[in-house]
Specification:
single chain; mainly alpha; two-stranded antiparallel sheet; 3 helices; 8% strand
Amino acid sequence: MNMVDGHILKAEHFTPQVQETLFKKNLSSGVFDLGYDFKTSIDEYINNIEKKIIDDALRSSDGNITKAANTLKIK
């Protein structure tokens, strides 16, 4: 399941909480480091990111699936 249209994940695709967890912003260059280790496939890596986002949304909505889905703008 992909939660964004297109092929590029940008910081704005993630909640502030997920951004804080996943990204380490290099302020001088404006580049975000996702910590990708090149040992897993990109598909597996993206799936893991999506799982983390969904988990964070569920946690912030106290386990309410509908509220989490609305927060993430998914059906």
